[in-house]
Amino acid sequence: MKCDKCNETIKENEKMELYGQILCEDCYIDSISPTKTCDPWAVHSAKSFSDENKTSASLNETQSKILQILKETQGIESEGLIEKLQIKKSDFERDFAALRHMEKVRAEMRDGKKILCLW
């Protein structure tokens, strides 16, 4: 059996159904809880956590790589960044959103293109 969204093979007992589609767990979660980069409450929470602990929130390996690539490139389109990271788009979106909530990264328009860059 294959996921209707990502086409990955899933076991019969691990399938999830949503709106008539058969989904793997990752696609199901992405569908019911989409990533939001512009979330004022998430930004507030990330800032409050940092202020309380007097440190920045710890980053995972992918988030650290994102920051490193953005520093080296001075900004890059999301497709190029995903290609350099060699990860799934949905995984990238979650890590980028977390960094956006920490106000470490942002997007801006350059020559009509959406470029991801450091805050």
Core attributes:
alpha+beta; single chain; 119 residues; 47% helix; 4 strands; elongated
Topology:
Blueprint: E1 16-18, E2 21-23, H1 25-32, H2 40-53, H3 61-73, H4 78-85, H5 89-101, E3 105-110, E4 113-118
Antiparallel strand pairs: 1-2, 3-4
Question: How would you characterize the overall build of this protein?
Answer:
It is a single chain. By secondary structure, the protein is α+β, with helices and mostly antiparallel strands. The protein is 47% helix and 15% strand. The strands form two sheets. It has a two-stranded antiparallel sheet. A two-stranded antiparallel sheet has the order 3-4. The longest helix is centred in the middle third of the chain and has 14 residues, at 40-53.
Number of continuous helical runs: 5
Can you count the beta strands? 4
What profile does the largest beta sheet have? 2 strands, antiparallel
Strand content: 15-25%
Structural class designation: alpha+beta
What's the assembly state of these chains?
Answer: single chain
In short:
This protein is 47% helix and 15% strand. With 119 residues, it is α+β, with helices and mostly antiparallel strands.
